[in-house]
Amino acid sequence: MPTLDWIGKKAVVNHHRQVPYRLLKCDAALSAGDADAGNLLVRGDNLLALKALLPYYAGKVKCIYIDPPYNTGNEGWVYNDNVNSPEIRRWLGKVIGKDAEDLSRHDKWLCMMYPRLALLRDFLTEDGAIFVSIDDNEVQNLRGVMDEVFGARNFVATIIWQKNYAPKASAKHFSEDHDYIVVYAKFADTWGPHLMPRTEKQDTMYKNRDDDPRGPWRPNNLAARNYYSKGTYRIQCPGGRVIEGPPRGSYWRVSEETFKELDKDNRIWWGKDRNSVPAPKIFLSEVKQGVVPMTIWPYTEAGHTQDAKKEVVSLVDFGDSDEVFITPKPTRLLERVLTVGADKDSLILDSFAGSGTTGHAVLKANAADGGRRRFILVEMDETICREVTAQRLTRVIKGYGDTPGLGGGFRYCTLGEPLFNADGGIAECVSFADLARHVFFTETGVPIPKQPRKVSALLGVHAGKGVYLLYNGVLGDKSVKGGNVLTGSVLATLPPHDGPKVIYGAGCRLGAERLRREGVTFKQVPYEIKVT
Ligand SMILES: C[S@@+](CC[C@H](N)C(=O)[O-])C[C@H]1O[C@@H](n2cnc3c(N)ncnc32)[C@H](O)[C@@H]1O
């Protein structure tokens, strides 16, 4: 299979593994509404934020939507749509080294995206999918990099969203009126989109021309261009006409036997004259409750960019500043993504949050149908995060002007210290709960199960294996009597688990034979804890 190469690729393909785990700190003053609603807005570079979030949410997100910088090369914008922000420039310099100077803007974009997509994949549930907004500047690079990270076989579709309602007279060539939304599933074989609700317009196609007691129906075409092995028979119409077979190059879509059965059940429409090409009836009462989503999303259904800007301006106070956030997506677009890609109780992740449209759409969907969807948003730019994203969410939750609040709430978080210091020691600020979450996740690859209030050395069981952490404060006292060292008496007091055990502790006084007999693998804290 062809693969994509670019300058700096070698430095970034495994980079996500080296990113240190950090603590998350919640800021109550910038949070709003119900703090326990399960929603988070994290301010920080999403590479660090995603790594910090993994121990909590790996394998738990049903729907990821991201709207990364499009990399249009337009440097003049206040809110950059490229990868030239100071944070990303610094990061590229650090990760790529001196080659960073030779990177083209496409190389930089790919270097930025690869490790972030690699982390995002780890958040998806087995039945989850990722939706990525993009335009022609990077769509082909995006497809290449997504093929590598998610697997080409997991490509689902490229949706075309009609973002403008009128042509741009200033266009150099064509007026570009659409964006793409590229969709990959974790496993495309088993993933399926939810159906879209039927619209009135779609239902008006169903009529009842012959007063069929089964209600309105629409005629289907009996001829199809695909090959149907049983379908080239002669048809005798009730009005006398003989049809020798389907039009050249096509086939009848049902066998002669099925056709006769359908006709007997009055499921064939022969036209008013009873001499037309027969059409099988499709009854409204028998079609699926919704409509299979199409890959073209017109602005009449999914909103357009002017809608989106108006929405943000009505929700965020930009004061006298001209610096209005100029790249939002309309809430209707995100509502559609949620309809197709999320359940009523799904966790939804957007790691390029911008003005917070994804969070807004989640709150709106919950208010409309009583769902319990939750969102995690990440935004790197501090001004945007505090003054646009948080402000918008707060107003939507509490209400603004004459618009009542939708309810819900979110916690505003920032990134704290890495869990481990430069020497590999546990940072002083790390609590037992922090270390426990980290140890369980790095040992098992899944988040720690919900803990009862009482602290226990048995953190949880995964795939039959019990994971234990011996602690004292967080290992403040490393002496044998301090409870952090695995001795015969400590082992006897540990909560029981029938099966293999992995025990993390500051030391071990049991011999290899005893450990084998007891089914214990001992791992020394901190050296045998994975730190990145
Ligand atoms: C195109 S905007 C997203 C707009 C959003 N969909 C909306 O409806 O408002 C991209 C956003 O990603 C943010 N961003 C860029 N690089 C980032 C990174 N490494 N981590 C987190 N956010 C980032 C930018 O600051 C910008 O706000």
Task: Spell out the blueprint of helices and strands.
Elements: H1 9-12, H2 15-18, E1 22-33, E2 40-43, H3 46-57, E3 61-66, H4 86-96, H5 105-123, E4 124-134, H6 139-150, E5 155-162, E6 178-185, E7 196-197, H7 200-203, E8 217-219, E9 223-224, E10 235-236, E11 242-243, E12 251-252, H8 256-264, E13 268-269, E14 279-283, E15 290-291, E16 296-297, H9 299-302, H10 305-315, H11 331-341, E17 347-350, H12 357-369, E18 374-379, H13 382-398, E19 399-400, E20 403-404, E21 409-418, H14 432-444, E22 458-462, E23 465-469, E24 485-486, H15 488-493, E25 501-505, E26 507-508, H16 512-518, E27 520-524
Parallel strand pairs: 2-18, 2-21, 3-4, 3-17, 5-16, 17-18, 23-25, 24-26, 25-27
Antiparallel strand pairs: 1-21, 4-6, 5-6, 7-15, 8-14, 9-12, 10-11, 13-14, 19-20, 22-23
Bound molecules: S-adenosylmethionine.
Structure characterization notes:
By secondary structure, the protein is of the alpha/beta class. It folds into three domains: 14-71 and 116-196 and 292-418, Vaccinia Virus protein VP39 (Rossmann fold, 3-Layer(aba) Sandwich); 200-286, no CATH class; 432-524, no CATH class. Helices cover 30% and strands 23% of the residues. It has 16 helices and 27 strands. The strands form eight sheets. The chain has a ten-stranded mixed beta sheet with strand order 1-21-2-18-17-3-4-6-5-16, with helices on both faces. A four-stranded mixed beta sheet has the order 22-23-25-27. α3 (46-57) runs parallel beside α5 and α11 (331-341) crosses α12 (357-369). It is globular. The two termini are 31 Å apart. S-adenosylmethionine binds at residues 45-46, 67, 69, 79, 327-329, 352, 354-355, 357, 378-381, 384.
